[in-house]
Structure prediction request, 346 residues.
Amino acid sequence: MSNFLDEAKKLLLSGNLTSEDETHFQRVFRGISALQGIHSKSKLDINNLESVFATFEMAQRLNKMPLFESEEIPLLIKSMKRLIVVTIEQHLIFPVKDSQINLPDPYFSFGKMIHELIQNPKIDHNVSILTFNYDLAADLMAQKFDLGPDYSLPNSTSYGSKKVLKLLKLHGSINWGVTKDHERVRPYNLKDFLGTKGFTSMSKTILNVGTEMKNFERVKYHEEPVIIPPTWNKSNIHPDMNAVWQQAALELEHAENLFVIGFSLPETDIFFRHLYALGTIGKIPFNRFWVFDPDESGIVEQRYSELLGPGAINRFKFYKKTFEQAVEMLNEEFVVNSGKHKFFTP
Prediction:
């Protein structure tokens, strides 16, 4: 999140955007520039995507934004969503080998570990991912390892009794859209998207699913993917998202081990704090509550320490590790040494 807007600015300056996308990017950065004028009275992190997104949403609710006419304020949110989609699409590079799209590092290792946890009868764990990411790396990972994914949307694929990965994208996804026929949230399946593509003679590619979703012939989607602001107020979000959040709460209730990777617990997203508080109500105690984040300032660790109650704080450990390092450590803990754990239960 700390350099997302910097990368978006590079895209704007590259001259490679369409004229429509250039307009969206320019509007977002004009809004950010307008926010600089409030610094004399208020502190606001205008370099952080989540903070800016939250401010734009509040500006829309208040119909108040410096240097913007009233009728243009609602366009800020639309432009921000488009900026997010394009920036993710252009920066998440997928390797290609023998005309087949593969997973970026370290998602192959991540998927292999999850596959072992779910499918290996000697381990036999239930695994769910709750994520605020909009990108498609985990989605493709689940598909590659034949693990679904199960999004828990009312209109997504049902896998019956087959053990798959629940991938609960709490802030939406660039491959989720609202259908024109029934006004329901429905995922644009990656298999359908990849079936329209060829990767011959490529060494790498991007997946511009969010951009091309509106052109999918089998299902007619509205132009804008389901991208939810990382803010406290989600009252106007599509009701189909309730099923995802309810399933997330259920997963938290039954979780014996909770691992947080790369989520800094931003102050702007009070939603997670309440989801965690209500979702974890239940009779099952945590064996582990581990947080992985390379933050050196100590702020992220402090936020989690202040979040946790006495029943979880003694299971809490904070590791200054990257996503890749976290995957290595968890694989060692749960797959390599699976038979050595006295308290290792499904």
